[in-house]
Design a protein that fits this description.
five-stranded mixed β-sheet; binds manganese (II) ion; 314 residues; binds 6-O-phosphono-beta-D-fructofuranose; globular; eight-stranded mixed β-sheet; alpha+beta; Fructose-1,6-Bisphosphatase, Chain A, domain 1; single chain
Length: 314
């Protein structure tokens, strides 16, 4: 059911999760994360564009927004009482919030992805990956849930617990209510979003991009991973890439808290996510800082990237 039409009742996030049969602890965790996002939005909207280590008007130490977002989220995860280990983009290491891991979750997250876009007032987001138990460095296919919150002109939340992908919007009471469930990505892309410096593209990626343009794909790139992926998921077509570059064989984006959760969501919506050779979700993490190239979105264009990289197009 969609609320884009004339639906009478708004379905909130908690009710949606319950109706889909999600376990109580996971419902609680996802709702706590959603709650944390209220405070993050507030800091983005009203906070100083503080640089960590400087003081504000009252002589208090200011925190850069990404550091603040990290503190808000970590506190909330601790408060949830169901989280064992956490790995944040802002932290140097995996942090153990609780040593009792039975029945608990571990969470990898990017508290404020694209934070350098806040001063120019472009959209940014929070990305979350959830595993059951204590181990956070597992292949992405073992995630039990993934989600992101997008702080744009509107605030939206997109989640999956392995049962489709669902979009929520924040209402005037700061509650998330259902916009659309079971989002689907078509097999063919009509837009492309290429990260990285084009003159560092390898020959096969340059040829792939020219092919995308020949196929009629329009360039749509904001420079924020969350809005760029959201565009593909919500419009239901497109391919995002942050490829390997000359001198940067692993690209830029991080597996644990950027690529795995987005790959989980996109696969759940019927799309694909590849490192250029195979599914992102099958990669076995070697460490918390793993990076990987990514080609993600409509299936045909993701397969086309793999074909160019394998030299099969010749
Ligand atoms: O987290 C890194 C990030 O800011 C993403 O949001 C974005 O997709 C990417 O970097 C942009 O990188 P570049 O500026 O190199 O295209
Ligand atoms: Mn990031």
């Amino acid at each position: 059911m969609s609320t884009r039409g004339k639906t009478k009742f708004q379905i909130n996030l908690r009710r949606h999760l319950r109706e889909r049969g999600v376990k109580d602890d996971l419902v609680h965790l996802i709702c706590e994360i959603a709650e944390a996002s209220n405070y993050i939005i507030n800091s983005i909207r009203t906070g100083d564009l503080g640089v960590a280590g400087t003081s504000n008007l009252y002589g208090e130490e200011q925190l850069a927004l990404d550091v603040l977002a990290d503190r808000i989220m970590t506190k909330r995860l601790l408060h949830s009482g169901v989280v064992g280990n956490v790995l944040s983009e802002e932290a140097d290491d995996i942090i153990c919030l609780s040593t009792e891991c039975g029945g608990r979750y571990s969470v990898a997250f990017d508290p404020l992805d694209g934070s350098s876009l806040v001063d120019v007032n472009l959209a940014v987001g929070t990305i979350i990956s959830i595993f059951e138990g204590c181990n956070i460095l597992l292949p992405g296919r073992q995630q039990v849930a993934a989600m992101y919150i997008l702080y744009g002109p509107r605030t939206t939340l997109v989640y999956s617990t392995g049962d489709g992908v669902h979009e929520f919007g924040m209402n005037q009471l700061m509650e998330y209510t259902l916009i659309k469930e079971n989002l689907q990505i078509k097999p063919q892309a009509n837009i492309y979003s290429p990260g990285g410096l084009r003159n560092l593209f390898t020959t096969e990626i340059e040829r792939y991009v020219r092919d995308l343009e020949k196929r009629g794909c329009k360039l749509r790139y904001s420079g924020g991973f969350v809005p760029d992926i959201n565009q593909v998921i919500v419009k239901g077509s497109g391919v995002f890439m942050y490829p390997h570059l000359q001198g940067h064989p692993n690209g830029k984006l991080r597996l644990s808290f950027e690529l795995n959760p987005m790959a989980f969501l996109v696969e759940q919506a019927g799309g694909a996510a590849s490192d250029g050779h195979g599914p992102i979700l099958d990669r076995i993490p070697q460490g918390k800082d793993d990076r990987s190239p990514i080609f993600i979105g409509s299936k045909e264009e993701v397969a086309l990237a793999e074909a160019y990289i394998a030299g099969l197009d010749q």
